[in-house]
From TrEMBL:
It comes from the Eukaryota. This is Bicarbonate transporter-like transmembrane domain-containing protein. The lineage of its organism: Eukaryota, Sar, Stramenopiles, Ochrophyta, Bacillariophyta. The chain crosses the membrane at residues 125-144, 178-195, 201-219, 269-292, 304-324, 360-377, 398-421, 472-491, 529-546, 552-570. Keywords: Membrane, Transmembrane, Transmembrane helix. One of its GO terms (molecular function) is solute:inorganic anion antiporter activity. Gene3D superfamilies: Helical hairpin bin (1.10.287.570). GO terms for biological process: monoatomic anion transport; monoatomic ion homeostasis. It is a multi-pass membrane protein. One of its GO terms (cellular component) is plasma membrane. InterPro entries: HCO3_transpt-like_TM_dom (IPR011531), HCO3_transpt_euk (IPR003020). Residues 95-260, 271-585 form the Bicarbonate transporter-like transmembrane domain.
Length: 589
């Protein structure tokens, strides 16, 4: 585009009267979006008639046309000023939140239309994401039903995941992020239920108050721009946190398969081994078809179709395989879901939370602080994974809008006694990858990311299907649990991809000459790299210990928050700035 120069001519009296709003000082002046001008120049007074005439000629030569609509815009803004809602938001919201709103509102319509225009990408993405989201929802719902003795079960998880996901798709700032139940939230839920049982409190009313306090804290953090502090959460923290999520997925799959061996007749282990075969077959086949786009076989279009629809086909294929008489005779366990739609223990939708003593209501603020720290980390880390530069997203991040939206959703879920949702890293990564278009680089001979279809439609429809699944409960009962375990194995392994912390554990035994010159071993030496890696291993082990111990599970979100403190104040005492940069973990600015 040809460079151009914007000029403004301002005519005003020498003495400015009180309350006068000049053309250049008015906030109504809008420069073109493609303008290179950062700030308007200060007005220059014209003292002589010749200067005035020269200025008019200069403006004319620059071909600046002030249209009638522009004049109306300026007049309206100056005379009316911001509305009541605008003044209220400006007074309460931080600059960071206002900037997020300003950034994302211009894309809101395209967030929907882009998805509708790209049906070829979105339809297979929705089908895959439905099963990818359904598996953890049903699995975590089954586990939650056991640890809460039926207070929260599969039906509640389906309703919550579906409705919360739809609301988040509508109101969030970055719709590419998915919210879902996570193993870490489930661990907190287990600790809270155990505490209520020991203290003799009714679980669901206390659950509601903890959720309401959490909602208040999260909305406050979002309105005050608190998400900016996530910059102190560096790669050191991200990789430990993602390592915890990965280990949790793998552990849940392992625990499910181990249970089959524990319950089976020692003299007949056919069922456990068949279940193990189905789980491994599901995981390996899903990984294979998900990576099929990079293979050499068939045309690019066929490879894309296999990559998009393959994971869904694998799940359906192993489910159908389990219905064959030769396999069905082994009695492979299937999902245990209620045959009809009803809430756990036949309770009402609304929780009688006002029955909780006033003192207990205030005390619920303390576990809510811990839960807020967990949600803050989980939500923002998931959003950062989505927004990272490698994904080539174009519409921008809006962390504070996300926090406010999730906080409001948490409050609504709590009132109805539905399980909490938060940012889910794996599902969010799958959402981005499912909508990623790729191209083959002729020079590098490698497949590269061409772009991502950034849309709210896929998230909304996927979660609408999850909510509608409550009407298909009998069909879910034919889904083998080992298939769910296989999906967990696949997700846990996939979450390890790109985690340099886990890679460094393997590299600690590698020969230095076989590693790149830029590798930390060759730059810093093996000892220094291993010390840094051992610190991360110790942090991960501590988190896992807190999470797995029912007596301390309620406190482990606080330990996650300590990771940021360790990185900011402790590690710099033992590693220089240059050493941390060599380890791929530069200090935040």
């Amino acid at each position: 585009m040809k460079d151009r120069e914007n000029k403004f001519l301002q005519i005003q009296p020498n003495g400015r009267r009180k309350g006068t709003v000049t053309f250049l000082s008015s906030s109504a002046v809008q420069q073109p979006e493609d303008s290179d001008i950062e700030e308007a120049a200060d007005p220059v007074p014209l003292k002589e008639d010749e200067e005035f005439i020269e200025a008019v000629k200069e403006v004319k030569d620059a071909a600046i046309n002030v249209t009638e609509s522009s004049v109306k815009l300026v007049t309206t803004a100056v005379t009316k000023g911001p509305g009541i809602i605008g003044r209220l938001v400006s007074a309460v919201a931080s600059k960071e939140l206002r900037d997020d709103i300003k950034l994302r509102k211009k894309y809101y319509i395209s967030d929907w239309t882009d998805g509708l225009k790209n049906k070829r990408n979105c339809i297979p993405a929705i089908l895959f994401l439905y099963f990818a989201c359904l598996a953890p929802v049903v699995s975590f719902g089954t586990i939650a039903s056991q640890i809460t003795e039926g207070s929260i079960g599969v039906v509640e998880f389906l309703i919550s995941s579906g409705c919360a996901g739809m609301l988040y798709s509508i109101f969030s700032g970055q719709p590419m992020t998915f919210i879902a139940p996570t193993g870490l939230t489930l661990a907190f839920l287990s600790g809270l239920y155990r505490y209520c049982t020991l203290q003799g409190f009714a679980f669901l009313p206390v659950y509601t108050w903890v959720g309401l306090w959490t909602s208040f804290f999260m909305i406050t953090v979002g309105f005050r721009g608190g998400s900016k502090y996530i910059r102190y959460c560096t790669r050191f923290t991200d990789e430990i946190f993602n390592g915890l999520l990965s280990v949790n997925f793998l552990y849940e799959a392992y625990a499910s398969l181990k249970r089959n061996f524990m319950l089976a007749d020692p003299m007949n282990l056919s069922m456990p081994f068949v279940s193990l075969s189905i789980a491994l077959g599901t995981a390996l086949s899903t990984a294979k078809v998900a990576a099929f786009e990079k293979s050499l076989y068939f045309t690019s279009k066929v490879r894309t179709i296999i990559k998009d629809f393959g994971p869904v086909a694998i799940i359906l294929a192993f489910t159908a395989l389990n219905q064959f008489p030769g396999i069905k005779k082994f009695g492979v366990p299937t999902l245990i879901v209620p045959s009809t739609f009803q809430l756990a223990n036949g309770r009402d939708f609304l929780i009688p939370f006002m029955t909780v003593p006033e003192k207990v209501r205030w005390l619920c603020a303390f576990p809510a602080m811990l839960l807020t720290s967990l949600f803050f980390m989980d939500q923002n880390i998931s959003a950062r994974v989505v927004n990272k530069e490698e994904n080539k997203l174009k519409k921008g991040a809006a962390y504070n809008i996300d926090m406010v939206a999730l906080g409001a959703i948490t409050g609504v879920l709590s009132i109805f006694g539905l399980p909490w949702m938060c940012g889910a890293t794996v599902q969010s990564m799958n959402h981005v990858r499912a909508l990623t278009t790729q191209k083959f680089n002729e020079e590098s001979k490698e497949v590269e990311i061409d772009g991502v279809v950034e849309t709210r439609a896929t998230g909304f429809i996927t979660h609408a299907m999850l909510a509608a699944t409550v009407r298909l409960l009998p069909l879910l009962s034919v889904l083998p649990i080992p298939v769910v375990s296989g999906v967990f194995l696949y997700l846990g392994r996939k979450l390890m991809t790109g985690n340099t912390f886990l890679k460094r554990i393997l590299d600690s035994c590698a020969e230095a000459a076989r590693l790149p010159k830029t590798h930390p071993i060759n730059v810093l030496g093996r000892k220094k790299m291993n010390i840094f890696t051992l610190v991360q291993v110790a942090c991960l082990a501590s988190l896992w210990t807190f999470k797995q111990n029912s007596a301390t599970a309620i406190f482990f979100p606080g330990v996650i928050g300590l990771l940021m403190a360790i990185r900011k104040w402790i590690l710099p005492r033992f590693f220089t700035k240059q050493e941390l940069e060599a380890l791929g973990d530069p200090s935040p600015t």
